[in-house]
From TrEMBL:
One Pfam assignment: DUF951
InterPro entries (alphabetical): DUF951
UniProt source species: Anaerosphaera aminiphila DSM 21120
Superkingdom, natural source: Bacteria
Protein name as annotated: DUF951 domain-containing protein
Amino acid sequence: MLVYELGDIVTLKKGHPCGENKWEILRTGVDIKLKCLGCERQVWLSRMEFEKRVRKIKEGDKFVSIVHHKKSED
């Protein structure tokens, strides 16, 4: 299981109806709270549903596939 932090930008399998596919993580835990970066709408997903839907995470200036994502160990 990957560790997601507040403020991470992710893309999901399907885009939002507003046309945007970038989401900011606002809250983590058993449920994940996301904010659409297009229309500012906020949604809740269970962690299991989020893990199924997430595809890429932003590292620096580019998006990296979750499969290749390596969290820095602090």
